[in-house]
Specification:
The chain is mainly alpha-helical. The protein contains 17 helices and seven strands. Helix 8 runs parallel beside helix 12, helix 12 packs across helix 13 and helix 13 crosses helix 17. The longest helix is centred in the last third of the chain and has 30 residues.
């Protein structure tokens, strides 16, 4: 065996590791793989070694296996789904095939994006009306910030057909922040106070990331938009949160109804189909390009998690201004 055999593999993304009857259960995108304690330790050492320049001998000594046995173990992990062979990736794929791959990945991305403890806290009664209000204010800013990144996506689209799809999306989306303003007035805030408030740094970072994607690569922008739209396609996934907030934190129905109206409108516009429509205009995409686009999508997932973290931290603190006020030299 040569070093190239082991280096032919790359580790796949593991979403969670949980103990299970003395073994460890590794959740990858499409399945759960159980490894015994000794196998799990060897896998961890191998996965840690793969991106390094350390020698095969060093790894063999660390795991206590010769190279042939370790290579067979890597093949076993590859068949189970914990590693993949880089050579097995296609050099090119069609836009439609790329969309199919994305659709298979999206559910695991969404569960990662919404794995922040904020959601469990809110659903279990340990949240507050203040945390709900903070979430709404930041959603207001995030939605209003569509005006910072959607026009850029149109301007930077080189293909006329894709430019047209994004222009239509912008025309349908640009004023949706009014739904959140309406919900916030039902919670006692004036429209002026909401409009003059300042978004949290991560709310701004989210739209800045979209701006960067729009400038660099319209497919990268489109996948980010698809991840965000993917959060609003199914009423059953968002209704329980709003219903729990109404019941647990005395949130009036008038502060929820506009949110439902907005979600229903987005479903009616079929915005979650936009990425598919865009990719139907792309005859072929290289593996390298597809990988870069997917990386943008996953970075967006991480932005959503960090955004939730910022909302939870800031609005949990009773001393934090609500809404956040812009810098005022007289006040300071
Ligand atoms: Fe919308």
């Amino acid at each position: 065996m040569t070093q190239a055999n082991l280096h032919a593999y790359s580790p796949r993304r593991v979403y969670s590791v949980t103990p299970c009857d003395g073994a460890l259960a590794f959740q990858v995108r499409e399945c759960v793989i159980e490894l015994g304690p000794a196998e799990a330790t060897t896998y961890a050492q191998l996965a840690e070694w793969l991106p390094t320049v350390r020698s095969v001998d060093e790894l063999c000594t660390a795991v206590g296996m010769d190279e042939a046995k370790l290579t067979r173990f890597a093949a076993h992990l590859g068949a189970a789904g914990l590693l993949y062979k880089k050579a097995d990736l296609p050099a090119e794929l069609s836009g439609e095939a790329f969309h199919k791959a994305f659709s298979e990945i999206l559910p695991s991305w969404l569960s990662e994006a919404f794995s922040h403890p904020y959601w469990q806290k809110m659903m279990s009664g340990l949240g507050s009306k203040r945390l709900y209000t903070g979430w709404l204010i930041e959603l207001y800013h995030y939605t209003r910030n569509a005006n910072r990144h959607m026009p850029l996506s149109c301007a930077h689209s080189r293909e006329k057909a894709i430019k047209g799809l994004h222009a239509k999306h912008y025309a349908e989306e640009w004023d949706h922040y009014h739904f959140f303003a309406k919900a916030l007035t039902a919670l006692g805030y004036t429209r002026a106070a909401i409009a003059e408030s300042v978004p949290l740094p991560m709310t701004l970072a989210l739209s800045n990331f979209m701006r960067q994607a729009a400038r660099e690569d319209i497919l990268a922008y489109s996948i980010c938009s698809a991840v965000l739209e993917g959060t609003t396609t199914d009423r059953s996934s968002y209704n329980p949160f709003y219903e729990a907030c109404a019941k647990l934190y005395d949130v009036p129905q008038e502060a929820i109804r506009p949110i439902y109206a907005h979600l229903d409108l987005d479903v009616q516009y079929q915005h979650s189909d936009l990425f598919h429509e865009v990719l139907c205009k792309v005859p072929s995409i290289s593996a390298e390009h597809a990988s870069r686009v997917l990386d943008y999508g996953h970075q967006l997932v991480e932005h959503i998690w960090l955004w939730t973290e910022n909302i939870d931290n800031y609005y949990s603190n009773p001393k934090s201004a609500l809404p956040r006020r812009p810098f005022d030299p007289f006040l300071e």
